Queue: 2 jobs
Job 1
Amino acid sequence: TILILGACGQIGTELSQSLREIHGRDKVIASDIRYGEDTFVKEGPFEIIDATDRDTIVKVIQKHNVSQVYLMAAMLSATAEKHPQKAWDLNMNSLLIILELAKEKLIDTIYWPSSIAVFGPSSPKVNTPQDTIMNPTTVYGMSKLAGEHWCNYYHNKFGVDVRSLRYPGIISWKTKPGGGTTDYAVDIYFKAVEEGKYECFLEENTMLPMMYMKDAIDATINIMEAKSEDIKVRTSYNLAAISFTPEQITAEIKKHIENFEVSYKPDFRQDIANSWPQIIDDSKAREDWNWSHEFDLESMTKEMLKNIQSSMISM
Ligand code: VAH
């Protein structure tokens, strides 16, 4: 059985649904610190779990005979800057609990997401390599970089099968993300449909690595289905799809909503974005477990606008 911690989050929500489609509803235990509003929670087994509460995690693992854990609970970059200690506690202690459970053989396999936030201002901005200088300047990035080394340590020292991907900004319409710097690229689609105008919290020429949710889910399932010996990187794999600026995504949206207006009012999240790469080199993932993305800016924009418009009509 699979247990997903943080199942009500932006990625956790769609990951739970996809894993239930593949493995069957009752083979995937969704969990989060509180019930999400999504109906999917009622579509299958759900447990209330605080990802830093080891005793409850162990109880649920034994109750449902869990063998795989997807640890999707975390505090993202913007929120983490407002609550540094809480972010460190949640992002690190949840991982250390799960790694230890795998070492103790209570579970077999772990999926743990890292992020392009592990790179910092001194990392190369274009074609950022798998291995390079990494001096993150955000609490979130520091916690993800430290987490990568813990994963590598538990794999090399204790043979723990933990797998990880450095997600870029993820764009989706089913669940609103919480507290990310890349989330302007989600908000902008909703505001274009709902109001025809958007005030962007990043400068128009801020290029960031991004990916449509379906590609992120496919990559996650791919790496978890790969043979362990094919996973050569046990810190975390670079993963990339598209890179664009607010100006470019606005131009793409205007092809569908021509009088859409965007204004720019950068806030504290501009500093976070400026510390991150612009274009990621993910050739290692493509070599080791034949990763490839499907959506580009044009096809993602069509998908996002179509689904937001139809979900509004059904409201
Ligand atoms: C964030 N969406 O903005 C997350 C992600 C690379 C960005 O880590 O914090």
Job 2
Amino acid sequence: MVEPRLVEDYHSSTASERHIPEHPIFWDETLRDGEQTPGVHFSPEEKLRIAEVLSDIGIPILNAGIPVVSEKEARSVELLAHAGLKAKVLAAARTVPADVDAVIASGATHIAIFVAASNVHLQYKLKMTQDEVLAASLKTVRQAKAAGLHVAFVTEDTVRAPFDFVERLYREVQEAGADRLVVSDTVGIMTPLTFRWYLQEFRRRVQPKDLSVHCHNDFGLATANTLTALECGVIAPHVCVNGLGERAGNASLEEVVLCLESLYGIRTGIKTERLYELSQLVEEISGVPIAANKALVGYNAFSHEAGIHTHGILAHTLTYEPLQPQVVGRERQMILGKHTGKAALVEKLKERGITASEPLLTDLLQRVKTETEARSKSDLRHFLKEYRRLFEHPGLTDVEFWTMVDSLGIRAVAQ
Ligand code: MN
């Protein structure tokens, strides 16, 4: 008799609809968009520490930052560009010749030239016409190509821009030499189905040689949309460690990689067993705590407390875990608490070679429950209060700001 399969895997049913490239090129944005997370700033040395791990685990492209932002930022990009990393170091530039010069001077081999595309950005932010955006884009793409850089052309807010303009702009910059085109869902409003339509339409109209996407997480869809883009054949998805980035962040590196590896069985070439180490490093350096329930790297992602669940896990991990924690460099945790059941206690006692009688087990279980329920939450409350205090004002406080204004003698002037 043939053994029945323990779980069904329906992903093969959709295999013919997927056009995932054999070797996706993960483009990490942790050091650029990730650094734009409110309150986050990295020193050049901190960027290098993160970059070394990213490069070691197999991420092929790192956006190191925007050198024209500050001298320190330029130093960061230079440091990474000359660190002998296996990953290619990319730096970003607006469609301004001085920005491109700064990238050329940094030693980065890759450049991302970005400009906004939607009417709301053009009219209210850039105060430029579509023709002016096109002219500035062509000029800077040619400038970067002439300097021998690999050029990615990015528009912000691509998916809220008039398609006719997007088509014209991207077609022309590609003709001018742009090597890779990046479509951005800057405010995270795509859904997987709409994004699939958009990318198919984009491909039909623009015929990109090489396509990349930049997805934001405002509605919690960044990973899903990025996965959709990969399913549509997009080669270079943007990702950030721990899903860092502006506002609600970008697509999380670990989530996108594990979706491909664990759900679709694709070998990404990323050393997934080091993802937790990377996540913890970025948490520590950025100061942005990982949500306890964050997929894969959150503290609870491989923890079990409820009796029914621990019982199941002890019998077979497939019952309540979709993947082994070791895959991302973690350990399973059995939590003893209010919801614990006897099976977990039996297993725990085994650690010391103890077997207990049924009445003693019942007694022990009652004590575990009572003890945890009676436990004071004051430490946790204190921690949360501090956490909120720190995160409600991650930058300068109002008091600090106004003290600075006063110390400079800044006063109202008559208009
Ligand atoms: Mn962004």
